């Protein structure tokens, strides 16, 4: 897909945006001849188009003998024409994403090869909408879809992003990153083992500047005393991997931003085996790993002037004669012993060692883990929001802003030490990996993970505040300057969508890839952001 400007004659088809009054966007009006605009408006009135967002009409041969006008034109409604101020940029982005995705998908059904895209209200959103909307996963089918994915280019001039703002090229990068993550998560587990995952990520990162990639094996994990991680991998014949990626875009010695992603490439539940219904979806239990690995792709492609480290523990959770049993006690890298009451609460076990390793070795200014962690999150928020548990109000506000820009929304949940009472009741170990059955599962899981982040403030540093009618415990952000700001993102609900419209393609979503990239961009653009 190309962001290079082309003349209209080079396209087989074009996508245009139209307001409720029938007018085309300012960008399209500059590029489309006035006589063609009048024909489009006349046809729109005849076709009964109301101008609602997402309504689409197809027109053929409007240029008659004019070879400069593509024979196929998709016109998509944008709603009411209004001035989108800077404070409403997220709305302009989302309207454009939806409209362009609907238009390009409609044209793909006509088997076109080259599509020109009206950037409508925001060129970043236009590139995202087209790239995300045209995604499909059919690499394992013996008979491929005969309608090939068309190439896309913008109609009209686009900015070159001289000041770090969002533009057509950034939209391509954000969407391509999410599509990388989609492919990782959608691929069946026998085709996406821990080894294949690590090698696949290495392959799409290897040409990027300032990237270092390390793929560690079982012996390395043993040397690091990662007993919690090792305990989950024991039941599978597939060897575990620990993927470590460093992006050195900032000054040497500058504290990095750190991402940790849960990488269970298939989750059967282990000895505490899951019900068979929807177990096939557990190929996507490495959604956090896919998101963070693809986010660093986007960050490196943008060339952001920051340092980033990504840690991904990868393994399968399988039942066998070697598998960890309920009641077994394992020891994590930080020395804490854990009673494994439920082997299906395995994500927090592999993340425990990854969090401690990342926080103690790299001492990042901000540490964000992403995980398809709890069924309780699915019940709480469904697929619309990802849950965020954090010790920093400033970090929460920044994630919230990034999510708004990407239309990949977050909802804050309580990271409250009172939930730790449930995980400290073991009679044989320091911690137990689950709390009371069916009670506050997501909150208990989050507070369990917090036990393994080195460098957080202790209880004397917190103050009570009110947020979303929940009592939360937040560190004073001035105090966090010398310590780690931490956030746990539970994406168990947002990992998959059963919708198939616009830029949402049915299947594994691989959220919040674009939000993580946007968060990193905001850090790079605003030195005081972190």
TrEMBL record:
Q: Which GO terms describe its cellular component?
A: cytoplasm
Q: What are the Cytosol aminopeptidase domain coordinates in residue numbering?
A: 342-349
Q: Which UniProt keywords apply?
A: Aminopeptidase, Hydrolase, Protease
Recorded GO MF terms: manganese ion binding; metalloaminopeptidase activity
The record ties this protein, via InterPro entries, to: Leucine_aapep/pepB, Macro_dom-like, Peptidase_M17_C, Peptidase_M17_leu_NH2_pept, Peptidase_M17_N
Q: What is this protein called?
A: Cytosol aminopeptidase
Q: Which family does this protein fall into?
A: Belongs to the peptidase M17 family.
- Known catalytic reactions: Release of an N-terminal amino acid, Xaa-|-Yaa-, in which Xaa is preferably Leu, but may be other amino acids including Pro although not Arg or Lys, and Yaa may be Pro. Amino acid amides and methyl esters are also readily hydrolyzed, but rates on arylamides are exceedingly low; Release of N-terminal proline from a peptide
Checking Pfam families in the record gives: Peptidase_M17, Peptidase_M17_N
Top-rank taxon, per record: Eukaryota
Please, one GO biological process term? Answer: proteolysis
